[in-house]
Amino acid sequence: MTGPGYDLLVGLHALSAVVGFGAVGISGTYAARARSLAEPRGDDGLRRYFRTGANWAERSLFVTPVLGAIVLGVGDSSAVSQPWPWIGLGCWVLAAGIATGLCWPAERRIQIFFADTSDDGERPAPGLVELREACATLQWGASAVSLCFLVAVVAMIWQPR
Predict the structure, then answer these.
(1) Which of 118, 135, 124 is nearest to 37 (CA)?
(2) Residue 115 sits in which domain range?
(3) C-alpha 95: how far from its chain's center?
(4) CA-CA distance, 154 to 88, in Å (whole number)?
(5) How far apart are CA 112 and CA 109, in angstroms?
(6) What is the pTM of this model?
(7) Which of 60, 90, 119, 138 has its CA 20 to 30 A from that of 97?
(8) Which pLDDT tens digit goes with each residue over 21-55?
(9) Distance between CA atoms of 135 and 145, rounded to whole angstroms?
(10) CA 82 vs CA 57, 63, 76, 134: distances in Å
């Protein structure tokens, strides 16, 4: 398949990757800012960014492999036997594992810090030391996710055979 329908699918696939992986990277940047401040609770921008709840822009990265599979299914079927889609999928698996296992739990701890209450309401919110640890985890995780994204983008564009 070629034409506007195929181009739209490729565009949606790329958009979901940019939004999902980009949002994880932005969270790492905000974590670096929170980590560097002496009193981060006073920063309204950080309080707004780390408001309680899921960051749905980050979760859009789960759409990326689905759209990629659709693109491969309706496009040139010989691409499946080439290494570049598998490199991209491997990068996505690694990035998704880092995001779900490291970044999002750290982000949740940061949200609890800014909400001034724990998950169950009985324990005090994490202190500054715990915030800095969560921020460091989120920063490193976001950097690793960004590196995976970069490798995947290079593989998708270069398409090694």
Answers:
(1) 135
(2) 4-158
(3) 7
(4) 9
(5) 5
(6) 0.89
(7) 119
(8) 999 999 999 999 999 999 998 899 999 999 999 99
(9) 15
(10) 30, 22, 11, 39
